Backbone:
């Protein structure tokens, strides 16, 4: 605070020769989101949109978005989108894909959406080997309703409906969605990433890319589970989000590809 | 007698907690209180409004106030609908310079530079409590000690450590409004 | 920890920071490998502190990767400016 | 097409395909099952898709997806299965996705389910209740048209006598006239254009092109349903001009009532019958007109009195309304009980007529 | 108990516990979420169980199980969540399992959902619509009694103004009088006795002791609901004796209407108000009486006109009925829009009154 | 047909000294069932009732029965029973068990009931570690509605809605319910038996016994998947049922205990 | 002219197939046919009933027949409600000895020992077709060849091999009813 | 295959067969290890053929285990009757 600091002018492009290596936002983004400071979901959105662009499938992609904080992304993604009911995205995506096999069809769902309300939908879609890509934003809580226990809340985690921390005796064990899905024969690509570190972000993007490639190759069902920070629902300061994620969710849900 | 207060500002300014504190303090004093709330769908930066009604008998006010006696204006943004409901002549504690006292021509305005006051007592997050302290000093709605108790009770365990700072803010706020003036009062300058 | 010496060492990259979009979450600061981002003392219109860049940026894009509010453009400086002053560390 | 002997379910499936239905997803439930089986047999042959949905909820959401992507689509079930679809039917009504729901019900106890629904919000569903298989074929074709015309989910309310009776029928494509543009269809081409499409109950639009939002959108949808109510009601009646007694019935029950009333008429009773063909919109004005001269308005339905509400709302004289129906279920729970029978219905009607034919 | 400042949701939770509720299972949904949170906080302390049901369907079925096993139980949600429960609510009505459903709705657009349902079969659900938190507390306690008295699922139809308003309230146990034997409860002791128990919508009984079967059982249940309709309707009214205009409203909207009508009355208008406290059974006879002298019956509800049907059925003169409500939703979709406001309501009423106070 | 046959009189108990080693039916059976000739479900029912009796828990057992041909067993089991909605048995059983922890609570469900309509219910109950015992009667079809494809129909199997046989491309892959359940941490005992041979019947009974013992010990969730013949839904003569089962279902769903 | 037939027996006797065959044969001849069915909830041994209506114009009969002109009675069990609907004088083909011809006093009864006839042509499972053959011989409803075609069409692929036996049964049945008599006719004995 | 010789060998067990309950599915016949059950020529009231027991039953209960219609009571004979006739096979 007291020490003098040299601050570089970052209000505009550098006046020395330079090459831009990262844009702040994908061009498919139409506006600002209103999610909390430190939320991991917008990062996942960025990756998804970048992958669509890089694969050059933007004009033949249809998204299906569930109910959670990411639901508001419907307003800002420049992609044809069906906002569907809580939990039902894989079924809606199935209907779309079956009548428009030439399109790339994805879902964007939270853990509440996919592991709670719609667990059956995603498992059935995976077993059917639907050629869709499901993206799970797993923050271990219902963020949008203020931080209650979901089926993926890890043991010990405090939520508004597990005030003393999730306790297996009362609340049961967390469900590793990607592992469950990977166990079904219709699943062609299943992976789990995280957006809590720069390395994790890069890895997650590669996973998303492979998932869409799998779909485009007609190989079967694909799912990328992305661990995202929810400082609000975890009741921690925004800057403790990544650390909390590493110490809780990531311990129960190891990162990596689950299919071979 | 029923007295209504509207509090208006933007999400994240502590409006709900401020209003809750007043209503709880009144309840603890054996009075009847109602706290109405409007939450936006968005998490932050959207409108945040609360209404508090306090009376000595079961209340007759509606949960969407048809009119209000007094106001605490924390931010000018989104404040218009709430201000339109104020009955002329009542007290209004306004957060200067974010709010222009001239925007409430018919009210008895008590300007408070809450940010400055809060910083002066090393409670920079407690702007809302500064304004509440000031409001209570003006309206003598509840015993100031009841406010401190209610505020403490309302903090969740993991935020209990903020209680002393909030209490300082309440007291500092209460010390501000010497008289309703046209100019912002605040820390001595 | 940034020392006065560090501040003058080479920057291989630089940023454009759209401070008005920032929500002050600090994630970029945590993610920056050479620790050249620091949070401002002032706040932006929304009331949030935002990151400022001190010398030493490598243009690694880590900040841009983790930022939930799409605040950063990252640039790699070409050709890298000459080292000026102290020994270039390896 | 030649005349075929088809089970109602199969005839309806043919009609759906003739009407352009190319996506179906359903889950077995008697007596709807045969419709699913027919679709699964026939659709692939015309380039369509029939999915064995793993549940009714998944089925109706698959259909919502396929319909949002611009394909004529349908699902079906009955009773409990339709109950499970309530959330999605309401959603589709509010986000304006057109499809057909074949409610091949076990009885008439689901009138409220069809006409008021248990979904959420202010939505209505056009509901046609055919009296026999032949009419079910016509209704099926009409419904695909109405769904798309009004961008709304619509219901065919059948029953075991429709689903499982085999009759000789001919199914031919019918032209119901022009339809509006389908610029709302999600086909993927909107991406990256700045004008990407959205099917969303909240209708918030895109940041660059805000939509009406729920307040205005839901009001607009409610207004649309008001307009449909004003134009799409259908009914059938006979002898109401001079009838002292008008019997109101819907669906197959109306066929029995017609049979009995014609018998009584032939015996000299001043009696007529009225059948709402659309349960929603209920043909209220027509019923008012039909009952203006009547002393008695009898309601016959195989339930505890559900259409009764609509008849009470619209009968010229509410106090003339009498309920002569009732709950009647086969022991299996899968079909009607003894009350769905002409002689029994005749007795019920006669029991409330004072005196003989002259009355 | 002392007076506490409680959010409506928390007050209702307290009331449920005071009424003996010992099992709760629910799934978050605004504005119901606070009720679930309160239950999860409070129930374990009194020896009860609150489960974070993984979905509404699972939640209501857990509750059905707990209730069938003899525990006072409840669930809740709103809108879409309640839509998902339709199948199970109907099932419970037909197999006669008592529990309470807290429908902390986002608005008044679910009147049909509560009163007609989208379940299947002939069932009804007693539905209480409190006007404020204090009444919600009383209704909650009454509902647990009514559920058990009539062996049926029952509904509290609240809204954001009930769920999220904080008021000073006192919650104390209330004695609602004696209840019938609970010999139907499944406790496991029937096994091997030859008289084992059964909770079954089909009511087929055991081979050694056949039950009535669906035909007779469903008729009996329908008769039970007729009896409830005759005895359990509740209402509130004022100034209807000499009112030329009667305004009908339910739930919190009625509070606003009362406020406005009292204002107009004070200004000399011959106006009164009527509030159905039970939405089902609808207090039809009382409404007929209350509107017998009225020239105008205005219906104010925050939807496209749903209670309107019941008012049309029961108003003394159907042609006097006018709708003055409408759909009105906050931008978030989670609360009422501008119409839920005394000055606006006042304007709506005055707009249909010809002339001034004298009229 | 032409050869003379010595036939032993079996109309009454033997008149020579003899010890009865097997009763035709458990005493908890109240009457006849009306299922098809050669159906496997009644055998499973017998085993279940015998186990309840042998564990001496008859008077503290509550059953929850779903919708399928076995649904009619509600009329003939002398046990307190809730007949619940299609697919919902695990949730109902959860409610019962949580308020009556002293009772043994079981569900009886078919593959249509458990793997289709209610997949999510059983998985969530297993993840929660509910102390209940779920019994899955898996015949790979909706028997009660006449033999349509379920989520467990094996590849190649002809049903009324997969006339050319189940084909992964169109209908997806069958779901191995017991395996999926065994992958969840709340599952304490999971096994798969079959009633197509006498040995299988004996093994299945042991599995059921262990499942209930697991429940009574409070160890967690238990499930026994029982492969049962459905000649009607398979469109084969009754006496080909066991062979068909062995050649189809049993190939996809190996028998044995899945937990350790 | 519309003519109604009721068929009654127990589940598993092939009643639905018999009725379907007749209705299909009539449809193939360009007539109008309706086949009403009642399925019990149970799979076998429960009541099985069917009604067939055939006419030359679009039919007016209800799908639950108010009355019927003729009957085929395959089993006496559960037959009462169906028989009560018969209009006196019409033809009834009854399966003796399972059905007592005397139980239909007002009808023109044609008794057929279908089990024996079926066995005699080595088609023991085809009792229903024996009775249908007899019924058609009595009523001349459709061309006998149309019956064989319809029967063949209705068999699912995996039962096609039964077609010849069924055809023999139809023919053998048609050969039985010389005249309506009071005594069971059947194979020569 | 049952040969005339087999028919007189030892039975170690026997059955009571409640033929009226039988639905003729044949499963018992398939399950019987010594193949001593054969289906009847006649049918029962419901029209089903039912199993009949020929000599050689071991009382193993396999038939009872697999029977879906609860037709069999199984007995073990004590003491086993003496072998009469041909060599007892091992
Ligand atoms: C049927 C139904 N039930 C409940 C809700 C309420 N709801 C909306 S968002 C949400 C939480 C979603 O959680 P998650 O999917 O994990 O997303 P997050 O907010 O954590 O990103 C819930 C429960 C709903 N919209 N629909
Ligand atoms: C919600 C709902 N959907 C459909 C049905 C119809 N139904 C009743 S039983 C059944 C099949 C059950 O199959 P399964 O559980 O495998 O039992 P099985 O008959 O094969 O023994 C179905 C689909 C129903 N009762 N409820
Ligand atoms: S509540 Fe959690 S998930 Fe939702 S926006 Fe805030 S941080 Fe993100
Ligand atoms: S680009 Fe890399 S080095 Fe430069 S500020 Fe960002 S994170 Fe730090
Ligand atoms: S990560 Fe982005 S939003 Fe967070 S502090 Fe850094 S620049 Fe601001
Ligand atoms: S249909 Fe299948 S499961 Fe049902 S009783 Fe018959 S054989 Fe058993
Ligand atoms: S007990 Fe064993 S040996 Fe005897 S008949 Fe039965 S299966 Fe055969
Ligand atoms: S197994 Fe049972 S039902 Fe089947 S043939 Fe043998 S005795 Fe009869
Ligand atoms: Mg989440
Ligand atoms: Mg099955």
Residues:
């Amino acid at each position: 605070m007291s020490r003098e600091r040299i601050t570089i002018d970052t209000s505009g492009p550098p006046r020395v020769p330079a090459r831009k290596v990262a844009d702040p936002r994908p061009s498919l983004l139409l506006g600002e989101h209103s999610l909390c400071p430190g939320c991991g979901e917008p990062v996942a959105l960025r990756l998804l949109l970048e992958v669509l662009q890089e694969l050059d499938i933007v004009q033949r992609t249809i998204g299906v978005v569930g109910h959670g904080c990411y639901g508001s992304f419907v307003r800002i993604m420049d992609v044809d989108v069906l906002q569907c009911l809580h939990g039902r995205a894989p079924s809606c995506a199935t209907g779309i894909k079956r009548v428009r096999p030439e399109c790339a069809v994805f879902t964007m769902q939270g853990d509440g959406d996919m592991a709670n309300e719609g667990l059956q939908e995603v498992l059935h879609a995976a077993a059917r080997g639907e050629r869709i890509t499901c993206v799970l934003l797993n923050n271990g809580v219902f963020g949008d309703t203020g931080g209650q226990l979901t089926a993926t809340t890890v043991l010990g985690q405090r939520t508004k409906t597990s005030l003393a921390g999730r306790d297996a005796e009362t609340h049961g064990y967390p469900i590793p969605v990607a592992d469950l899905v990977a166990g079904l024969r219709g699943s062609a690509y299943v992976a789990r990433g995280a957006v809590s570190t720069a390395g994790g972000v890069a890895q997650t993007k590669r996973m998303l890319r492979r998932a869409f490639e799998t779909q485009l190759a007609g190989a079967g069902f694909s799912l990328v589970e992305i661990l995202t920070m929810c400082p609000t629902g975890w009741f921690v300061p925004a800057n403790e989000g990544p650390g909390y994620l590493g110490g809780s969710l990531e311990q129960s849900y190891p990162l990596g590809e689950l299919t071979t | 007698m029923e007295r209504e207060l509207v509090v208006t500002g933007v999400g994240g300014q502590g409006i709900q907690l401020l209003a809750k504190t007043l209503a709880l303090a009144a309840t603890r004093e054996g009075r009847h209180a109602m706290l109405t709330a409007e939450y936006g769908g968005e998490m932050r930066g959207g409108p945040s409004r609360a209404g508090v009604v306090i009376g000595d008998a079961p209340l007759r006010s509606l949960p969407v106030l048809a009119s209000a006696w007094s106001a605490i204006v924390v931010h000018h943004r989104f404040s218009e609908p709430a201000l339109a409901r104020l009955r002329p002549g009542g007290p209004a504690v306004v957060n200067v310079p974010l709010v222009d006292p001239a925007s409430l021509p018919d009210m008895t305005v008590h300007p408070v530079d809450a940010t400055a006051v809060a910083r002066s007592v090393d409670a920079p997050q407690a702007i809302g409590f500064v304004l509440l302290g000031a409001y209570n000093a003006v309206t003598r709605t509840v015993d100031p000690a009841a406010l401190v108790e209610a505020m403490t009770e309302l903090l969740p365990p993991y935020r209990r450590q903020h209680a002393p700072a909030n209490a300082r803010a309440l007291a500092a706020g209460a010390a501000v409004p010497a008289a309703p003036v046209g100019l912002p009062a605040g820390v001595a300058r | 920890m940034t020392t006065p010496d560090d501040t003058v060492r080479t920057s291989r990259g630089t940023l454009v920071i759209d401070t008005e979009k920032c929500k002050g979450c600090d994630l970029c600061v945590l993610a920056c490998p050479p620790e050249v981002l620091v949070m401002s003392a002032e706040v932006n219109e929304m009331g949030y502190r935002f990151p400022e860049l001190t010398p030493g940026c490598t243009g690694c894009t880590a900040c841009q990767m983790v930022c939930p509010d799409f605040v950063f453009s990252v640039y790699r400086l070409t050709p890298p400016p000459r080292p000026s002053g102290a020994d270039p560390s390896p | 097409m030649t005349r075929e002997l088809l089970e109602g379910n199969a005839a309806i499936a043919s009609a759906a395909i003739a009407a352009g239905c190319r996506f179906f997803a359903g889950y077995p439930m008697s007596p709807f099952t045969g419709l699913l089986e027919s679709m699964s047999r026939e659709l692939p042959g015309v380039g369509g898709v029939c999915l064995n949905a793993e549940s009714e909820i998944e089925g109706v959401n698959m259909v919502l997806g396929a319909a949002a992507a611009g394909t004529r689509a349908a699902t079906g079930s009955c009773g409990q299965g339709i109950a499970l679809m309530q959330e999605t039917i309401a959603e589709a009504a509010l986000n304006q996705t057109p499809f057909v729901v074949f409610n091949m019900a076990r009885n008439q106890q689901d009138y409220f389910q069809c006409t008021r629904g248990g979904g959420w919000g202010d939505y209505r569903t056009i509901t046609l209740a055919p009296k026999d298989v032949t009419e079910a074929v016509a209704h099926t074709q009409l419904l695909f048209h109405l769904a798309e015309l009004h961008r709304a989910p619509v219901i065919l309310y059948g029953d075991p006598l429709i689903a499982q009776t085999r009759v000789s029928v001919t199914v031919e494509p019918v032209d119901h006239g022009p339809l509006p543009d389908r610029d709302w269809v999600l086909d993927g081409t909107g991406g990256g254009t700045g004008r990407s499409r959205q099917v969303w109950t909240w209708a918030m639009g895109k940041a660059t092109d805000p939509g009406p939002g729920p307040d205005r959108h839901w009001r607009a949808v409610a207004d649309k349903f008001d307009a449909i109510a004003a134009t799409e009601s259908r009914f059938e009646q006979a002898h109401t001009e001079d009838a002292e007694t008008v019997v109101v019935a819907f669906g197959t029950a109306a066929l029995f009532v017609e049979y009995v009333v014609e018998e009584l008429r032939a015996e000299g009773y001043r009696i007529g019958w009225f059948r709402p063909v659309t349960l929603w919109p209920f043909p209220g004005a027509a019923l008012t007109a039909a009952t203006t001269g009547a002393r008695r308005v009898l309601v016959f339905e195989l339930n505890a009195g559900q259409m009764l509400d609509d008849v009470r709302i619209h009968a010229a004289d509410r106090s003339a309304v009498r309920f002569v129906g009732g709950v009647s279920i086969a022991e299996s729970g899968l079909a009607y009980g003894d009350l769905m029978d002409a002689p029994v219905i005749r007795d019920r009607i006669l029991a409330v007529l004072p005196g003989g034919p002259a009355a």
